[in-house]
User: Fold Methylamine utilisation protein MauE domain-containing protein from Hymenobacter glacieicola.
Amino acid sequence: MKQVTRICWLLLGVVFIFSGLVKLNDPVGTALKLEEYFEVFSKDFGSFFEIFIPHSRTLSIVLSSLEVVLGVAVLLRWMLRQTLWVLLALLVFFGFLTFYSAAFNKVTDCGCFGDFIKLTPWTSFFKDLFLLVLWAVVFFNQRYLRRVFAKGTLGVMYITLASAVAIGIGVRALGHLPYFDFLPYKVGNDIGKLMKPQEQARYQYVMERNGETKTFTEYPTDSTWKYKSMEVLNPLTSKPVITDFSVFDAEGKDHTQDILTGNKLLLIVQSASTADRDRFKDISKLMEDAAKSRKQIRPLIITSSSPQEFDAFRHDVNLAGTYYFADATVLKSMIRSNPGFILLQDGVVKGKYHYHDIPEASKLEELL
Assistant:
């Protein structure tokens, strides 16, 4: 039992650190997931949860950093009993979220491991149950973990350092772009290619005849077999990775293929009402310089705001240029910055830039 306890102790600490770091890699994505939960809860349990929505980004960093710090505290065995009680509260909270999502089909992806590992609600719930089992083994067998690796002032220093590092990682990612991009629009991806299936769907058919059940990879021509069910053998590769990328103008005319042809510099303004307005002088300069580039870069603007709202916004910030519209969720997936730049070459993502990291036009030319 001693060895089992130590294995559970190690797994518990490592999983919490890993989970927190993955979320801190993309705090904006974590905040979007929290907003989704708060919106669901405000509808189901009352408007009280709406007060948390404006603070989602702060909460994403706080909760994610807490996971990392608790994981470090477990591995150091620093104030282990107290740490385990806090862990239990967090596990019960996450367990409720994932069970509620799974049982009532409210949030289809819990965001437990960010966009790095996608988990279904039920998988997320069973993951939380597994962690609760690890917690129980460690909690009820603490006698096998008597050695503390950091205590007293040294322990406080380690926990303070872990807190500072975790918060620092999250704050920097919040002010720039994720360190690692796991989204379909990451640099190097071909958007047009990802909008098509990798291969044709393959099926297997379950047929029945005279009480006998048999599986076929091709639909039988023998009419004596009666259809029972059908299953797709390659569900992941037979569906496009990107299914909702569509760009259109104010009249509703589709411009998606035009966006995916040639060299394009896309200025993504997810929402005019929440966009940071401080950098638009530099943004406009880059768009002007890009339009004069020898690489024939065409700057365009894409937003999810209404035509009326965006027209007023662009006059306020002195932003000139052709602008189109797209779904808000798509733009949030394209780049974790509002506003932000994406450089395309025939639909291939060559560069992505936060508004805090606006490049020179020469840098764009080097990438094309």
About this structure: The beta strands are 203-209, 212-216, 226-232, 263-269, 298-303, 323-325, 340-345, 348-354. Residues 110-114 have pLDDT under 50 and may be disordered.
